[in-house]
Amino acid sequence: MNIKLHTPKSLKNGSGMSSLKQFMLSLLATTVSIALTFGTAAVIDNLKKKKEKREIVMMVMYDMYNTLRSVEKSDTMLRQAMKYQLQVAEDTAQYNKLKFQMAVLVPQVDYTETTERIFSSSIETINTVGNVLFSESVADFYQARSRYKGIVCDSIAHHVMINNPFSSARGVINIDFDYYALLTKSLLTGMRQSFTQCKQITRVSDEDLDVYCREREQMKIAAEAEIGASDVSDDELLEYVRKIGEAKKKLNLE
Fold it and tell me: Cα separation of 148 and 4, whole Å?
């Protein structure tokens, strides 16, 4: 920005205090104008950064919240499986009754790593948040989530696939549900602590998170409804199948 201050001609000609006063008023007006220009730009930039920071924080908190819900649900399934396992251990006659119910209780977590990648892979994103403690707590949370999926969910699923334990009462009884339950308790406690720390660090209240979650859920429902509205109906699908079959016959493809 090139700003030139022009000395009044009257001051150059030495016309006295009146001209000096006019010059000083001009100088003051120019100074105020510069201050307002740069000050307004700084305020706008600051507000933009605060908005971006808030959006990133809420996005991460929402991801952590949904992960906790998923792990807690998985933990409930694991504990229910342990109850059935105990019933079979105490009375093997219960095996035939409970084996199918136990098979659907293999714990699993439902989440995507999109938010984690966005937050963890971009130094710009971390700098926008600008809080080291928050970044560390988020990293601890995602590390615990990864460990839970690997050493609990994936491990049990691998055991089931390789050993098919639900095919016999002995197999059901020998599943180490107690070991996995203790691992889950430890990892879930750590994730909850990290989540609470993040809320405290960023001063995100439960009410703020509830509002954000509702907004995200409404967006999800609206998107699903739009996709559903564009789906092909069963009748249309059958008509497509019929017409494609007729076309294949004409082309001697059948």
Answer: 66
pLDDT tens column, 13-66:
555 566 767 767 776 667 666 656 655 444 444 455 667 778 888 889 999 999
| Spatial contact of 74 and 92, defined as CB atoms under 8 Å apart | no
Contact criterion met (CB below 8 Å) for 78 and 177: yes
Q: Which residues of 138-161 are buried (b: 16+ CB within 10 A; e: fewer)?
A: bebbbebbeebbeebbeebeebee
Reference 78, options 171, 188, 217; nearest CA is 188
Q: Exposure of 85 by Cβ count < 10 A (0-12 exposed, 13-18 middle, 19+ buried)? A: buried
Q: What distance in Å separates the CA atoms of residue 201 and residue 193, rounded to the nearest whole number?
A: 12
Question: Rounded to 5, what percent of the chain is helix, strand, coil?
Answer: 85, 0, 15
SS3 string, 195-210, reads HHHHHHHHCCCHHHHH
| Statement: residue 173 has pLDDT above 60 | yes
pTM (2 decimals)? 0.67
246 in Cβ contact with 253 (< 8 Å): no
- List of residues 6+ apart from 108 with CB closer than 8 A: 74, 153, 157
205-214: burial string, b at 16+ Cβ within 10 Å, e else: eeebbeebbe
Grouping H, G, I as helix, E, B as strand and the rest as coil, residue 230 is: coil
- Tens of pLDDT, residue by residue over 89-121, are 999 999 999 988 888 888 888 787 888 888 777
Residue type, position 148, single letter: Y
pLDDT in tens, 178-211: 999 999 999 999 999 999 999 998 888 889 889 9
